[in-house]
Amino acid sequence: MALQSLDIIRRSATSTHPPDQRKTQEVVKLIDVSKCIGCKACQVACMEWNDTRDVIGTNHGVLDNPADLTEDSWTVMRYSEVETDRGLEWLIRKDGCMHCGDPGCLKACPAPGAIVQYSNGIVDFHEENCIGCDYCLTGCPFNIPRLSKKDSKVYKCTLCSDRVAVGLEPACVKTCPTGAIVFGTKEDMLRHAEERIADLKSRGYDKAGIYNPQRVGGTHVMYVLQHADKPEMYHGLPKDPSISAMVSLWKDGAKPLASMALGLGILGAALHYVTKGPNEVSEENEKEFKDEK
Amino acid sequence: MKNDPKKLMRYTPSERANHWLTAILFFLAALSGLSFFQPLYYPLTLLFAGGVWTRILHPFFGVLMTVSFGIEFFNYRQLNVMTPTDWEWLSRVRQLVGGDDQNMPEAGKFNGGQKLLFWLMAVFMALLILSGIVIWRAYFSFLFPVGLIRFASVIHAASAAVMIGLIIFHIYAAIWMKESIGAMLYGWVRRAWAKQHHPAWYREMTGGGK
């Protein structure tokens, strides 16, 4: 048995306790946007380690390449040119799964065990259980999972769960030449982020801060942003993401309510039948038509 | 089969065939859909050769059911226009459910309850197919923004739950009112039955005599 299967704290479409006897430390990948030079080495390392090869696309006149996340490109660099009080700034954000503390994808998934969350915080897709409904994309507040056209399964960043499980850092972290991507325990990464933010503030970025949105239970991929008050500037990073109220209504409200109501309906019908009896033709009518069979 | 020349034709063979086709498609759609709705029902996917096949087949069951139900809808829509008598019938339905049908207003081919059920099923069938198209990933979802897909998911689940509730009611009513399942299976009903449950229809069919 792979030891990782003992670390599962959440399992999609499962109401009983998943196996989580083993406890592992919560990990975080911290991406310091201010240190990123946009070299895309992380994209290459991701494809290299995971052995995915995207189709060669076309030039869209911008550096973003590929233009969007795909089933083969689990991370992409997003380039934004923005005007701030410091003049023109080039903000480069490595996009990919945020590994939410409370994952919307997992909440929406109807297939038992297709999405799991390990006790180290990594949210992982187990494609052999995936049925290809793409509900996870409906649940995701960050628009991350991608449905493969080849096999109708969904794919996204695994935070290199296979590497992390054996004590290695994710491939993108390993390759990053500027140290913009670092990896470690959540505690260490939060402390490191504080140091980075203090440094940025000392250099005039008053609004520098960490991106660790609380309404999705915090994330296990965090950013250090120069302008943490305006995350939208970073290619539409949502300011205060949360699992859509629609998804909660659908998954938390409708499920138990409907089952209960339908169960009560059947029970009520059975009770009615045994207490009131069937509705038959009256004796009077039977007599009138006694020639009938 | 008509074993008595005086029996009345309630449902023609094509109406019956269409009704049971709709019923089968309803069960296929409902059982496959329930498995995605609630993990408790996920084992139902085994009826359809597993989760992936269930995901592939469910929308097609829904489309076929819409077509089959749609034919029923057009056949019966005029017979189901609500009249003041039907509303009166509905206002006294408590007595009937309580076991006393002496004071019920005279029902035609369909009573007020059947008519109301007909229109409710039509509304929820329409909601199901419209929301279902929006969340049909294989062919349509890419046309719609994620906000609409989320909304459609809620509508689809809620409408399906209501629809299943309506059908439970429909099936129970048929079990409770003796001989009505036979009417839909074989087409013919006894005059005593017709006079008892659908007096206005009985008069229309027989001219009031025996």
Question: Your description of this structure?
Answer:
The complex is a heterodimer of chains A (293) and B (210). Chain A has 293 residues and is an alpha+beta fold. Chain A contains eight helices and eleven strands. Chain A has a four-stranded mixed β-sheet with strand order 9-2-11-10. Chain A has a three-stranded antiparallel β-sheet with strand order 1-5-6, with no helix packed on it. In chain A, strands 3-4 form a two-stranded antiparallel ribbon. In chain A, a hairpin with a 2-residue loop joins strand 3 (76-84) and strand 4 (87-95). The model of chain A has no long low-confidence stretch (mean pLDDT 93). Chain B contains nine helices and two strands; from the N terminus they run βαααααααβαα. Chain B has helices at 13-37, 51-76, 84-91, 93-97, 112-134, 146-176, 180-186, 191-197, 199-206; strands at residues 8-9, 188-189. In chain B, helix 2 (51-76) packs across helix 5 (112-134). Chain B is elongated, with a radius of gyration of 20 Å. Classes of the chains: A alpha+beta (293), B mainly alpha (210). At the A-B interface, helix 3, helix 7 and helix 8 of A face helix 1, helix 2, helix 6 and helix 8 of B.
Write the layout of secondary structure elements.
The complex is a heterodimer of chains A (293) and B (210).
Chain A: E1 8-11, E2 27-32, H1 41-50, E3 76-84, E4 87-95, H2 104-108, E5 115-118, E6 123-125, H3 135-139, E7 146-147, E8 154-155, H4 161-165, H5 171-175, E9 181-185, H6 186-202, E10 209-211, E11 221-225, H7 245-276, H8 283-288
Parallel strand pairs in A: 2-11
Antiparallel strand pairs in A: 1-5, 2-9, 3-4, 5-6, 7-8, 10-11
Chain B: E1 8-9, H1 13-37, H2 51-76, H3 84-91, H4 93-97, H5 112-134, H6 146-176, H7 180-186, E2 188-189, H8 191-197, H9 199-206
Antiparallel strand pairs in B: 1-2
Helix pairs in contact in B: 1-2, 2-5, 5-6, 8-9
